[in-house]
Design a protein that fits this description.
InterPro entries: Glyas_Bleomycin-R_OHBP_Dase (IPR029068). By secondary structure, this protein is α+β, with helices and mostly antiparallel strands. The protein contains one helix and four strands; from the N terminus they run E-H-E-E-E.
Length: about 80
Amino acid sequence: MGFALKGIDHVQLAAPKGSEEAARSFFAGILGMTEIEKPEKLRKRGGVWFQFGSSQLHIGIEEPFVPARKAHPAFATLKTSSH
């Protein structure tokens, strides 16, 4: 059985409770991602979702939060500017 991968639909990163504003500041404010609405049934869990190109980044609240030791996404950018 064969198949071809089309791309990445989304990446999820774990974050501590109450970190949504920090995520918005970084991912939308600095990186320029667009915040998108989470499905109604998932909103009570907290977190925030972003769109960039055809992919999404999901920031999911994890309790208790344990930072990942090595797992991470790497974002490619077209240009950078100083703030």
